[in-house]
Design goal:
The chain has about 500 residues and is an alpha+beta fold. About 50% of the residues lie in helices and about 20% in strands.
Length: about 500
């Protein structure tokens, strides 16, 4: 007996822990939204390219576009142009679109449009990058100035991260004569990044430039230069002007490297302007869209991977265990008397179509008429099977009559009575009649009222939209319910109604 108790406790613990771990993995790792009302941001980005084409000459326009390899995924990407050919090339982690035309003249306008959102992917590939680089060639006064700056940088740093931070701090101190010499009077961000790269290269620390766009709606902006370095485990991002570390969450990497954003052959005065706006979309619908656009596929083996009609069926079926849990609590803990164990759950499923009030009325009427017929058949001394057959036929006829009458009277709700499980009604009538004969009318009515109460409570719980969504999206919680049901299976204590029933003993 002791080993049996240990086995049961271990089984309950495994089921509960497994259910909670799977659900937590879906929520915190895969990022599946907990509520159906949760929304995510959807960003629409327009890059407008304008330039003056040279008369009667071929035109070739190249523009960097986001690589979208890490935190964001594209839902739609389009290239709007007139009389231009379009192609996309990948190189050095970048994507570049090329517009080309045999002849063009005058003012030209091209558009690149992108709809993106945060990537729904639980696992990101392990980052890779260089951890060593050769020194850039430097001679004369520049070399002396660089070495003079590196001496205190090495003294005040402990690793790659602090070394880069200290370097950026020194380069931005434009009052230092050594810094003035390296910058040569040019204090632009690009020239500061060049000086930072020189100092880091002497220390053999790799550095890479990247250009970002801030995801802010209705704000005119141009790409912002950042730098990054790989420390052997992850990429470290730095603002070369402010020294800020860590790429902000609202930044989208547009391209890497030193090359300009746009290059035009056969044209001049090229410029690019950005226009951003955001909107919201239902999170689980967005997860489906991104699942189709990525290789993550975390919804592929979930219930959302089923056909839509099948999903609607499972949204009803998967709530049955919760209805069963309600009956279990009402019977084993409270002591409520019902007609059978799972009959209230099946009646609750019928209530989903008929509605609660109309369903209770129909159940009461059909059961009352069925009891009258059952009482009459008892006088005929029929065997059980023929008696049940007659009652079942009577239930079908009664349902048909109620449906026809309600239709003639204009009550469409009465048509849904056909959804009542006829066999369950027949067995309920038979069981109620036997209970009436064996234990009296009061006990039978108590069981009938208890059945309706349990069915109503189960219906109200199974109808909660937030609960339906949660169980359907995270079906592993059913393992937790099974663990609770197993624990209830060994409950031998008093029921709530028995405390009132035996209250007299307490007085003695």
């Amino acid at each position: 007996m002791r080993s049996l108790n240990l086995h049961l406790k271990a089984l309950i613990g495994v089921l509960v822990i497994l259910g909670l771990l799977i659900t937590a993995y879906q929520i915190f790792v895969l990022g599946i939204p907990v509520t159906e009302d949760e929304t995510d941001d959807l960003w629409n980005i327009d890059a407008k390219v304008e330039f003056q084409a040279s008369p009667n000459s071929p035109v070739k326009v190249q523009l960097f576009v986001p690589p979208l390899t890490q935190d964001y995924v594209s839902l739609n990407e389009s290239f709007v142009s007139r009389n231009y050919g379009v192609s996309i090339n990948r190189a050095d982690g970048n994507r570049r679109v090329t517009w080309s035309a045999r002849r063009a003249s005058g003012n030209q306008t091209l558009y690149y449009r992108l709809v993106l959102t945060k990537r729904y992917s639980g696992e990101q590939p392990k980052p890779k990058g260089p951890i060593f680089r050769d020194s850039l060639p430097v001679e004369g006064p520049e070399k002396i100035a660089a070495e003079a700056l590196l001496a205190p940088i090495r003294q005040h740093s402990a690793d790659v991260e602090t070394f880069i931070t200290e370097t950026i701090k020194r380069v931005n101190n434009t009052s230092d004569d050594n810094v003035k010499l390296l910058l040569g009077g040019d204090t632009s961000v690009a020239n500061k990044a060049k000086a930072i790269e020189l100092l880091l290269s002497i220390a053999h620390v790799p550095m890479e430039r990247l250009h970002t766009i801030r995801l802010i709606a209705d704000v005119q902006q141009s790409p912002e230069l950042w730098v990054r370095s790989f420390n052997g485990e992850k990429w470290l991002y730095f603002n070369p002007e402010t020294g800020e570390q860590g790429l902000p969450a609202d930044r989208l990497i547009w391209w890497f490297g030193d090359e300009p954003l746009i290059s035009v052959d056969g044209g001049r005065r090229a410029q690019v302007s950005f226009n951003l706006n955001s909107s919201e979309i239902n999170a689980i619908h967005l997860a489906k869209l991104t699942d189709e656009s990525t290789e993550a596929g975390f919804l592929e083996y979930s219930l959302y991977g089923l056909p839509l009609q099948t999903q609607q069926t499972f949204q009803i079926m998967i709530m049955i265990p919760l209805g069963v849990l309600v009956i279990l609590i009402l019977r084993n803990l409270i002591g409520l008397q019902t007609l059978g164990t799972f009959t209230p759950v099946l009646i609750a499923l019928a209530f989903r179509e008929t509605g609660l009030q109309w369903g209770i009325a129909l159940f009461t009427v059909i059961t009352a008429l069925g009891l009258s017929l059952r009482s009459y058949l008892e006088h005929l001394k029929l065997q059980m099977l023929p008696r049940l057959s007659v009652v079942l036929t009577f239930v079908v006829v009664t349902i048909a009559a109620i449906s026809l009458l309600s239709h003639k009277l204009g009550f469409d709700s009465g048509l849904s009575v056909a959804l009542f499980p006829m066999v369950i009604l027949t067995m309920s009538i038979e069981r109620l009649s036997i209970t009436w004969e064996e234990r009296g009318a009061a006990h039978a009515m108590k069981a009938a009222v208890g059945t309706l109460f349990a069915a109503s409570l189960a219906y109200l719980l199974m109808k909660v939209p937030e609960l339906v969504y949660f169980v359907f999206t995270f079906p592993a919680v059913l393992l937790v319910l099974v663990g609770f049901m197993l624990a209830m299976g060994r409950y031998r204590g008093y029921r709530l109604t028995e405390l009132f029933r035996f209250k007299a003993f307490l007085k003695d």
